[in-house]
Amino acid sequence: MGLGTLISLVRNEGHKIFFIDNFLKPSNFIEDGFIQKNNIDFVAISANTLCYRDSLRMFKAIEKLRRSKKSSVKIIVGGPQTAVAAQTIPEYVDFIVQGEGEEAILDIINGRIKERIIKKPRIKDLDSLPFQPWDIFSKLPYHFSGPWLNDKIEPIFTMNTSRGCPLGCTFCAVSSIWGKEYYGFSADRIIFEIEYLIKNHGAKGIFFREDNFTFDRKRTVEFCEKLIKKNIDITWICEARVDSLCDEELVKLMRASGCRAVYLGVESGSQRILDILSKGITVEQIENAVNLCKKHNINTYCSLLAGVPEETYSDYLLTKRMMDKLVPFHYMFHVVKGVPRSPLYNHMLQNRLYEYIDDIGIVYPPGFDIKSKFFYRKDSSHFVKYRFRQRTQYDKSLLRELRIERIDRIVNCADRIILYLPEFLVKAIIKIKLVLKNILFRVFI
After folding, report:
1. Beta strands in 203-362 (DSSP E)
2. Cα(149)–Cα(204) distance, integer angstroms
3. Confidence of residue 341 (pLDDT cuts 50, 70, 90)
4. Cβ neighbours of residue 237 under 8 Å, at least 6 residues apart?
């Protein structure tokens, strides 16, 4: 979305652009001569911290081209990495843009700026920004379906209508990227782009991907009321905080205007952990928001955190029991890592609440391998090349659960085999089955 706005601005200035999404479809476009074939003057790369290694690979490949005199292309880098870890960007990168890039990109390509590190003032009037380059995006093989919906509705387009967050969740680095001041499109501006998408691209739904679509209650109400008044038939999904949805009047209005699902940053069912995270919500508010959404037929996806420093197995059980009680449409645990420039990252470093720091600065807590296996059902080597050795009491409890699951699988396998045995053997096996299970339990525990 950030690159999309820049593409539209640059095209409107009369420049020719090319767009490559290397996450959507990995390629070696630099090595394959794309830059030379198309006489590219600037390559602008959005660098995401968790995927920074691929950005580094591209920087190095472009610099190799330049040193071999095959191209004189300039490198511009923006994205989260420039705000949280500018020191990791190689010296040969020509321009580093921190924060919003709309003013900077035009100044750079039009030769109006010479500084290497550029940070422009925040844009307060987001309505002044152009639409996304939907003519480009709509033709690429993105997922145009909506998560957490009962019905298959396509195409669903992604929109981002606000920037900044004044809140202080310790695990989040958004404020260091956008800033704490919140600015958003007006309700009219949002609807104007939705009408364009319906008319020109047959949009059936919108997914608002931003930190808190419902943060500004007045804007949310105006947006819903105008959708209804203009009789715009569109399904929409958004990301929201639970405290903004403890408002039955608002939830009811959202449903009436087409909202069918919400992504909620629940994080934990333990008030102690919510307070450690400076989340600013209560367990009661979580339950209230999920129940109100269910009452008005809005599906809820609950995003949860696991492995917060100082979290215990008992805290995890509180979260799991809350999910069992509320039965949201879907929920998922995400294993905590320290992201540079977030308060949690600083806390983990200062108090040595970590076992490993990787080459791009991501901080991993003790027992990350156990938590990966338990919550993702994947070996931690999928995420980081390190052998974890430290174990907390929390990890030992999760390990015990994993071993009990393994015992159950062995016993269930035996049950399936029994079905094919003669009757006299079945009776004998049934008698010793309980003894076998107890033996296995002692072996594994």
Report:
1. 205-208, 235-240, 259-267, 299-306, 330-335, 356-357
2. 13
3. confident
4. 146, 147, 148, 149, 156, 205, 206, 207, 208, 259, 260, 261, 262, 263
Average pLDDT over residues 1-14: 95
pLDDT band at 445; cut points 50, 70, 90: very low
Q: Is 381 exposed, middle or buried (0-12, 13-18, 19+ CB in 10 A)?
A: exposed
Contact 195, 242 (CB under 8 A): no
Q: In the chain, what percentage of residues exceed pLDDT 70? A: 92
Interatomic CA distance for residues 322 and 393, integer angstroms: 22
Residue 155, helix vs strand vs coil = coil
Sequence-distant (≥ 6) Cβ neighbours of residue 413 within 8 angstroms: none
* Burial profile 57-91: b = 16 or more Cβ within 10 angstroms, e = fewer: ebbeebbebbeeeebebbbbbbbbbbbbbeebbee
> Which residues in 67-182 belong to E strands, given as ranges?
74-78, 95-97, 117-118, 156-159, 162-163
Contacts of 186-192 with C-beta under 8 Å, sequence gap 24+, read 186/127, 186/219, 187/219, 187/222, 187/223, 187/226, 188/127, 188/226, 189/126, 189/127, 189/161, 190/159, 190/161, 190/223, 191/223, 191/226, 191/227, 191/230, 191/232
- Which of the four pLDDT bands, split at 50, 70 and 90, describes residue 444? very low
Domains of the chain: residue spans and CATH: 2-118 (3.40.50.280), 126-353 (3.20.20.70), 360-390 (no CATH), 402-444 (no CATH)
Calculate mean pLDDT across residues 169-192.
Answer: 88
My answer on whether omega of the bond before 130 falls inside 30° of 0, hence cis, is: no
- CA-nearest of 248, 256, 175, 249 to 212 is 175
Residue 345 tokens, joined:
């990252």
Token pair for 52:
């920074």
In whole angstroms, what is the distance from residue 162 CA to residue 210 CA?
Answer: 7
More reliable by pLDDT, 347 or 413: 347
Over the stretch 238-259, which tens digit does the pLDDT of each residue have? 999 999 999 999 999 999 999 9
Give the pLDDT of residue 172. 85
